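Re: that chain you flagged

S.,

Sorry for the slow reply, it's been a week of failed gels. I finally had a moment to sit down with the sequence you sent. For the record, here it is as I used it:
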Amino acid sequence: MVSRLKGYLLYIVVSLVGLLMLGNIYLIYLNNQVISSNKEQQEAAERIKLNTLDVIRSLHLLDLAIRSYTFVKGDHFLNAADIAIRDNTLAISRLEDPLKSQDFPMAEFYRLKDSVNSYISVARQMLDLISKGRQKEFVDILSTDPGYSVWQQHQAFSALVSDFEDGISSSAKARYEAALNNSYVLQILLFLIAIPTLGYTAYYTSRNLSVSEQLRKSEEEKAKILSDQNRLLEKTVFERTHEILAQNEEMTAYNEQLLLQQREIELQRNSLSKQNESLMEAKRIIEEQNLLIQQKNNELGIEVARQTRDLKQTNLELIEQNTRLEQFGFIISHNLRAPMARLVGLSAILGFSSDPREMSEIVSLMVKSTQDLDQVIKDLTLIIGIQKMDTKVL
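Prediction finished late last night. Pasting the structure tokens below so you have them in one place:
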């Protein structure tokens, strides 16, 4: 009864270990889902930040087009203003739905949107005044600097968006770390339960092997006793046979009876031999099962360590890729803007300049600005190449 209860206890513990393994697999699956969700949220946050910057960039382009059209009344500056207005409208529309989906306080967004639309209306009015030659009215509007308040409001909105998106990224990261900690706790619990189970299994198996060894020795002793008895019996039979042959025919029946007893003893010995073979086969099966259990445990430990290592490596690669994207966006937004602004301004001045010497100096400055822009592009290309090399090395 006690042995049966111990066997049931072993099955219960092994079943519990199996359930914990399934839970661990499910938790790893959840961790992968959290990682994917975290990546998507971080990418959405970065897109929202870039779209926020696109709003002010398009307004800068609109302002630059208005000022350029003031000096050189060319249709291409009007086209640039239309493009800036279109880009601003697209940037605003790309911000609205993502911010709503994140439960962002939309009142700030709508205030910024109204201010931007108001500024665009003023910009259209200024362009119309310039095209009609009403310079004084244009200067009056320009002197009020209508874009400055929009710029200030955008700065406040951009800071609010950055803080909000950083909070979303931090929350996603916290959920991922919590899921990872749960995985660690489950693995520790699995370890604490699996080790005693394996120890008990080893003890139980060792005891079974000891019992099998005792049975084997007992069978050998029995076989030796039977062999001694057989030899003694054969000697006795031989002696009795000679005696019976010397006696009368009545002893013949007694001799046949002894022969029957000898055959029964041989049958018993064969039966004992078969039982011994069955015990040896059972011992071999037990040894094979123990080896299989040991192999499964080793494979489980290797798989758990590999998956933990892969999760850590994936997290490090995601952090590094996000850092590179931020640096690259910063380089594009700052390094390309200055040469392009100089080229646009110089081209505008060149259009209404009539002094050959002054035009030559302006062309020289435009060439230098073009060379600066070319150098910036080369530097960006070099940075991209280095980042690709680093990515391949990783």
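What I noticed first: The mean pLDDT is 78.

Talk soon,
D.
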